[in-house]
Fold:
Amino acid sequence: MVDIDLEKFFDRVNHDKLMSLVKERVSDVRVLKLINRYLKSGAMAGEVYEPTGEGTPQGGPLSPLLANLLLDRLDKELERRGHCFARYADDCNIYVRSKRASERVMAGVTRYLSRKLRLKVNELKSAVARPWERTFLGFTLLYSCKKTVSDKAAKRFKEEVRRLSRRTRGVSATTVVAGLRKYLLGWKAYFGVCESRSTLRELDSWVRRRLRCYLWKQWGTAGYHELRRRGVSRDLAWNTAKSAHGPWRLSRSPALAFALPARYFAGLGLPSLYEKTK
Structure:
């Protein structure tokens, strides 16, 4: 595959080229003037005003639309050449049959972007590689060509869950789960199309383990009594409470898995990332 990333795309879009494409679709002079002013509105660097001779305002609601308007030419060119590809904003993956073909396509697309659209390919972030060696929008492809969550996206997920469930004295598990719920539902809405269900199952298990660790720390010296209250046998509860292992190690222990099963967290409102298929 050819993984193309455009260098500082939103900072370096050529205004003349962009406006010429806008004029092909928009005839209202008032709209054209408004878009042109939007592009040339400038920016404040501290207390200093700096004019903008190129690029589109990052974060502006119109910028993604203008980006697609410009890069639609790239899409049409790739379709004309018969390539299979996926593009989102300034990230594009083109799938070919061999490394030799991918190198040829990389060179050809780089020339096209430079000459026709006046855009530069970021050589450091772009590459010719196997699909499972690269990531695209937080996903990567397995050797079986199934979509899965990339390692980087999974790492960011765990960092955010840790932040939302960091130990705060006096905060109940219900409150912690309520804080996690919104993030997990949003994450699931995006990454739920992952075809590697084992990845979602592993992350689901990791979240519950994180919450078991949180509760075990919160119980403190009352850990033995909390385990007994939840039906754990006397010997198992005693051995767990007196264990020299730390909270994270114990969060995978049989005692905590029995005392705090998945249905317990589901009852608190914790959404599941993994759903069994019928």
Remarks:
- The beta strands are 2-5, 43-45, 48-50, 84-88, 91-95, 127-128, 139-141, 147-149.
- The chain has a mean pLDDT of 89.
- Residues 201 and 275 are 8 Å apart (CA to CA).
- The chain has 13 helices and eight strands.
